Amino acid sequence: MLVALAGCAVLSMLCLRYKREADMLRGLEEAYGIPCHIDNDVKSATRAERLWGFGQISKNFVYLNVGTGIAVGTVINGRQIRGSHFNAGEVGHLRVGVQVGVKCACGRMDCVEAIAAGIGFDNCARLLRSRYETRLHIPDEREGRVLVSEVFTLAQKGDPLCVALVDIASEALANLIMNLGLGLFFLSSWFTVRFPEAAWRAGESVVPYGFLIFLIGSFVVGASATILQVVINPYLTACYVRGTQPIQRLAIGGSANSVGTTLAPYFVTGVVFGGLSMSEIRIDQLMLPFFSLMVVIMLVVFLLMRFSLPDVQGTKAEAGEKLERSVWSFRHLALGVVAIFFYVGVEVCIGGNINLYAMEMGMASPALLATLYWGGMLVGRLVGSSLSHVSPRTQLTVTTTLAGVLTVLAIAFDNPWLLCAVGLFHSIMWGAIFTLSVARLGKYTSAASGVFMIGVVGGAVFPLLQGVLADVLGGWRLSWCLVVAGEAFMLWYALMGSRIRPKDVVV
Question: Which of 11, 44, 156, 205 is the 20 to 30 Å CA partner of 338?
Fold first, then answer.
């Protein structure tokens, strides 16, 4: 591919195997009458995006290419990062905890490129074909590679080998993206320290480019966490454990999440930063914590890969079986997505903004309120895990009613401490809504779980809306009416919206 660029040209080639590149360049320069330069495909594509694509919208972006290989192009403040040895972005040779037994061209085992790229699909297909039945055409190595398009086509039809190949590649890419997101967190602090004056200016507002990089990292990590939820939720719901019901198992699983959110505020402020206030923390102090978090996540991924989890039958379409209906046609599921939109929204509103409410009132330790709120969710989930004889509908009805009452009282008495207690009731709403949403869906359960996770966008929308309300109303007090509205909708869903129509029962 030849790309004209300011009087010169960039030659992008997937694999360059010429011994005398100079002769080739001279021939091209003579043919086109302009200077030519050689660059690899991803760096050239990144340059094209910078000049004519996404670079017209933002001066900071990451271009991830998954093709024959896997690599990343990074643009910061309009400048393409190449690295001191021109190898920046060669993330395809990272190991991300997925063990297949494939040797990469670099000599290492199980690099993500050797698993999830075009080359990787071919490698894994040849290695695993003896373990699975398949209709995939695997040519002789001298004749060419496996067609990735054929792999995906057959995977949709339930071909065992192709399903395994797609699952393995998806897991490897998800792990890679998670670590790239954490890497962007590290990069945001490094960039801000290295280029303190680099910022985007709009009128009187000044936004450091490092903050924009942090937002990109947050999006990537959030996407990875969503993928994990899509997998975990239906597994906990469908995996039968004697003496428990689905909502209990979801509460037990959610308890681990609550431990982290409860300890994080004080662990970060008290241990990582030695009790410094947010205004006293310097950007350069963030690099080590972010890097340490990357190491911890990679260790967790490695340990999880050591476990072998059985596939739960009856929650997805079997090989060759098609889903005749759209998952959106199930009324209780569609309304459940809306309910989870409201739930995640109000949950994050209190957890993320209660400290700002406390600061507005001049309270000495705003972080304490957030800790108590998330701690209440931990206690509530531990209690909820023991409620084996209380139906999800009853639990959701009671908790939304009490949460709504407490929020109204917090507004009436201008008391943020009452909002801390709401966490106790928010704790089991997720499990209750999810259980009611996927009830009686059978083979549609896995697909429904993916649709269900669309609702988590409420966690991004509601806090923003509440912030706008707080600005308009001149304070946080009345902005909590937004939370009351969310509790009211979830109460209606518990009483009416979650009722399953006869035609929505999957036998």
Answer: 156
- Which residues make Cβ contacts (< 8 Å) with residue 16, sequence separation at least 6? 38, 40
Longest CA–CA separation in the chain, Å: 82
Look at residue 71 and give its three-state secondary structure: strand
Q: If you ran DSSP here, which 8-state letter would residue 496 be given?
A: I
| Contact of 420 with 320, CB cutoff 8 Å | no
φ/ψ region of 327 (left if φ > 0, alpha if ψ in -120 to 50, else beta) reads: alpha
Checking if the pLDDT of 242 tops 60, the result is yes
Report the alpha-carbon distance of residue 384 to residue 431 in Å, rounded: 10
Above 70 in pLDDT, residue 278? no
pLDDT at 170: 82
Range among 13-27, 311-325, 409-423 with highest mean pLDDT value:
409-423
**pLDDT at 12 (0 to 100):** 47
**Distance between start and end Cα atoms, the chain:** 54
> Inter-axis angle of helices 246-266 and 429-437, to 10 degrees?
150
Exposed e or buried b for every residue in 358-395, given b needs 16+ CB within 10 A?
beeeeeeebbbbbbbbbbbbbebbbebbebeebebbeb
Q: What is the mean pLDDT of residues 224-228?
A: 70
444-to-45, 107, 192, 436, 483 alpha-carbon distances in Å = 39, 42, 47, 14, 31
Average predicted confidence (pLDDT) for the chain: 82
* Other CB atoms within 10 A of residue 320 CB: 8
Question: Distance between CA atoms of 36 and 266, rounded to whole angstroms?
Answer: 56
Tally the residues of the chain. Answer: 507
- The β-bridge relationship of strands 79-81 and 61-66 is unpaired
On whether the pTM is more than 0.85, the answer is: no
Kindly give, in sequence order, each residue whose CB lies less than 8 Å from that of residue 305, ignoring residues fewer than 6 positions away. 97, 98, 99
Q: Pick left, alpha or beta for residue 274 (phi over 0 → left; psi -120 to 50 → alpha; otherwise beta).
A: left
Q: Give burial (CB, 10 Å; 0-12/13-18/19+) of 18.
A: exposed
State the SS3 of 84-108: CCCCCCCHHHCCCCCCCCCECCCCC
More confident of the two residues 384 and 297: 384
